[in-house]
Amino acid sequence: MAHPQPRPNVLQIPAYVPGRPPTAREGMTTFKLSSNENPYPPLPGVLEAAVAAVGQVNRYPDMGSTALYAALADRFDVPVERLSVATGSVALIYQLLAAFCDPGDEVVHAWRSFEAYPIAIAAAGAVSVRVPVLADGRHDLDAMAAAVTERTKVVLVCTPNNPTGPAVTQAELDAFLAQVPQRVLVVVDEAYAEFVRTPDPVDGVATQARHDNVVVTRTFSKAYGLAALRVGFAVAPEPVAGALRAVSLPFGVSTVAQAAAIASLAAEAELLERVDALVAERDRVLAGVREAGWRVPDAQGNFVWFELGERTLDFAAAADERGVVVRPFAGEGARVSIGEAEANDRVVALARDFPPPA
Ligand SMILES: *Cc1c(COP(=O)(O)O)cnc(C)c1O
């Protein structure tokens, strides 16, 4: 008997494996370091704005997110026509692929990189072209440029790269963009931009202004600590921003998310002090782990990558015994988020006790 059938690509969509919550342990505080979340709860002013907005949930949100667009335009000095807000930057990536890819079109990206990419690409019916990262976890941008074919519609550049950690430099990005044909859309996923402390950091918004084929995606989920509210934004050429808005789900960004995002922009200085504290913790963990004999890649996000091969799941289990949940990628390695100081201490202690690869 014939059954309703989804498009064939839907059956090919890989499952998204979310970071697990910690296993509860008697008499032990447990920590979730598996989803690159911000360990700080919302600032009082942000919480108040969000709570006040809850009082209006009988009404639909402002579909045009007018006040949020105005606040973003002001903060980043770009016209609203070049902005698009959405329910997180993952949604922006889905929307970009839906708007730009026909079935069978190719999307080039680094691998391992953000696990949502192959899922979003498959959902769009496009083909994922994975270019292995270099041994030090950096994007191989020359190989990515060389992987562009007639069928390529989009290239995804993840900087800093989740889960390996290094950031692309501005000089590298400029050289890359000079090699990619104008008809190919280059998405610069800057989910962790606020955590970058390199001498030549990418300025995504300025880069976007110089290129008609570049889109930058940013999120309130990581540095701003609003992961559960689902709000992010893109800075894009006007026609691309328009296409993004055209394919967005109506009323996606909730009233609460809009209010909290606006309040976060107003409190940015205070939020970025927290980011500084997390960066200091990241550097402390990185130093401790390296002192213990690990060769870990540069960490420019709020996480550290341990390359573990076949021992990945053992490492994750050993972390779990210490009340810390990490994000294992079986056979490859484990990504460990920077969290509370006590959680970070446990990670360094684990790195001392768990033998590094020979
Ligand atoms: C966390 C993350 C995002 C942000 O996702 P949201 O949908 O905004 O929560 C985007 N890209 C990468 C690489 C990430 O790690």
UniProtKB/TrEMBL annotation:
Alphabetized Pfam families for the sequence: Aminotran_1_2
EC numbers: 2.6.1.57
PROSITE patterns: AA_TRANSFER_CLASS_2 (PS00599)
Catalysed conversion reaction: an aromatic L-alpha-amino acid + 2-oxoglutarate = an aromatic oxo-acid + L-glutamate
Keyword Transferase: yes
Residues that bear N6-(pyridoxal phosphate)lysine: K222
Residues in Aminotransferase class I/classII large domain copies: 31-348
Keyword vocabulary terms for this entry: Aminotransferase, Pyridoxal phosphate, Transferase
GO biological process: L-histidine biosynthetic process
InterPro entries: Aminotrans_II_pyridoxalP_BS, Aminotransferase_I/II_large, ArAT, HisP_aminotrans, HistidinolP_aminotransfase, PyrdxlP-dep_Trfase, PyrdxlP-dep_Trfase_major, PyrdxlP-dep_Trfase_small
GO molecular function: aromatic-amino-acid transaminase activity; histidinol-phosphate transaminase activity; pyridoxal phosphate binding
The keyword Ribonucleoprotein is assigned to this record: no
Cofactor(s) of this protein: pyridoxal 5'-phosphate
Primary role: Aminotransferase that catalyzes the conversion of aromatic amino acids and 2-oxoglutarate into corresponding aromatic oxo acids and L-glutamate.
Assembly mode: Homodimer.
NCBIfam families: hisC, PRK03321.1
Classification via PANTHER family: HISTIDINOL-PHOSPHATE AMINOTRANSFERASE (PTHR43643:SF3), HISTIDINOL-PHOSPHATE AMINOTRANSFERASE 2 (PTHR43643)
Similarity section: Belongs to the class-II pyridoxal-phosphate-dependent aminotransferase family.
Name recorded for this polypeptide: Aromatic amino acid aminotransferase
